[in-house]
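Reading a protein record of the kind used here takes only a little practice. Think of the row as the fold of the chain written in a discrete alphabet. A record is reproduced here so that you can trace the correspondence yourselves:
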Amino acid sequence: MTAHTIFVCTTCASKWENGKRIGESGGEKLLKRLQSAYPNWQLNREFVIQPVECMSACSRSCAVSFASPGKTTYLFGDISPDLTPTEINGVFDCADKYYAHPEGSLPWSERPEPLKKGIIARIPAVSTSLDKNKIEQEMCN
């Protein structure tokens, strides 16, 4: 079981007709591209790629996110569903950096394309109960 996840919005860049989604969405296309390169990625045992029905980044599609317990979560948008193999490797290179940093920090200057731009959110890690006890001790001193 792995503790790192790449979430991919599968509703992004959908085409709608009469209130129903038709055809393959851009997000589904992006997911397939990531999944096809995933077996050759050196950290494929450390991450899972998980489809998400909607990440509420509709005006910034396509969207992906890196998340792990105790680490900052990043949400990226404006990602083409037609990434080249080099750009797909860029997503995985960025995930490598996320994995390597204890807090999941991804400074702009270190992020590879296509995730250099398009940041939607940087969400602080949720405190664990151990962190909560430490914070309470620090506040009491």
Remarks:
- The helical segments are 26-37, 85-100, 129-140.
- Strands lie at 4-9, 15-17, 20-22, 47-52, 64-67, 73-76, 119-123.
